[in-house]
Structure prediction request, 137 residues.
Amino acid sequence: MKIKAFVLLPLCILFFVSAHTQELHTLAQNFLTTLDKDLLDKTQFQMDADERYNFNYVPVARKGPTFKDFNEEQKEATTNLLKASLSQEGFTKASEIMALENVLIVLENNKMKMSDGTPMRDALNYHFTFFWKTGQR
Prediction:
C-alpha cells in the first residue's frame, strides 16, 4: 500500500501542476488575443529586455499598458489571469494595494507627479508586460 501511495502522490502532483500551467498559458493567450496590435506591441518584450529589470514597489516610469488602456473585455481577461496566477489571499492583497492608491491620493493631496506629468497615485496605473524568449511569441 505504501508503494502505491509513493507512486501515486507524485503523479497526482505532476498532473495538478501540468494542468495549472496549461490554464495559465490559456488565460495568458486569451488576454493577448483581446489586444489590438498597438497594445500587443506595448505589452510584449524579449526576455533580455531592460524593462524586465524595471521592478519597483513605488510608482516609477514603466513600459507596458495599464488598466487605463484596457476596455472591459481586456480588464476582465487581465483579472482572470491575475486570479489564476495568485492565491486567493494574494489576489485580495494585490487588489487592496491597488485600491489604497485612492487613499494615498487624499493623504498626499495628489501633489506628486510622474516624470511625464501624470499623477503618481492612480489605482489604474499598474502595468502589464509579457516577456518571451526569442522566437517564442
In short: Strands lie at 44-46, 130-132. Residues 2-33 form the longest helix (32 residues). Residues 13 and 19 are 10 Å apart (CA to CA).
